[in-house]
Structure formats: structure tokens, C-alpha cells
């Protein structure tokens, strides 16, 4: 006898589950590295290149205010170069702290991932409301 499968409580258009009253992602699951392997967010993001994702010349970043665009290959190169500079010239290493105060710029994301790849601690303050204060 063929047993019919009960209908899924998850709406295939919105992802809303009528039983739990929660939303579920309609995207395929993301495969994360095992928790027992220490890897930084930046290292993980750059490791995705091996999965033939949209690399190397598709757009990674777009500043909607200025129209500035950065491709994945440029983003990777700039991030790795800046991390190398921080490590070799400035001497920034794992556990060091960096404080970044900036306007909301596309370069901040490159800086952010450079610091993440070094496994350094940092505080980030950015946004259009920031201004120079002379004391």
C-alpha cells in the first residue's frame, strides 16, 4: 500500500512553518567547517574559492552611494596584501587589538577581512554620522 506523505508545514514560497510559527531559509544549506577546526571567518570565506563559486571576476562589493565596484579577485588581492602589510611592517599578530573609526566606505570591508585573517581583535565604528572632532 502506498502511504502518502503528509504535506510539509513549511510554505515553499515564503519558508513560513505553520506549526512552529518560524521562517526557514529557502536557500540550500551552507556547509560550514567542523567546530573542532580553528579557522577564521576570512580564511573560511577565501576557502570558498575552491568550490567554484562566483570567482574571480564577478563583483564582490558595490558602494550604492558612489557606484564604486570591487571584483572578487581585487577584493582577495587587496585583503591579503593589507593583512601581509599589517603583519610584516606594523607587526600586528593574532590577539593584538586594532581600533578602526571610519566613514562608511567600501575599503572598510577590505580592512575588516584583513584584520579577521590575522585573527586580531578589533573594534569597528563606521557610518555617515561620524565626523572629525578637534579638541
Can you offer a commentary on this structure?
With 135 residues, the protein is α+β, with helices and mostly antiparallel strands. It contains three helices and six strands, in the order ββαββαβαβ. The chain has a two-stranded antiparallel sheet with strand order 1-2. β1 (16-17) and β2 (22-23) form a beta hairpin. The longest helix has 19 residues, at 72-90. The protein is elongated and about 65 Å long. It starts with 15 loop residues before the first strand and ends in a 9-residue tail after the last strand. Mean pLDDT is 78; it is low at 128-135.
Q: Residue share in helices?
A: 25-40%
Low-confidence stretches: 128-135
Topology as H/E string?
EEHEEHEHE
Order of strands in the sheet with most strands = 1-2
Quote the beta fraction: 15-25%
Note the topology.
Blueprint: E1 16-17, E2 22-23, H1 41-47, E3 59-62, E4 69-71, H2 72-90, E5 97-102, H3 107-117, E6 121-126
Parallel strand pairs: 5-6
Antiparallel strand pairs: 1-2, 3-4
Helix pairs in contact: 2-3
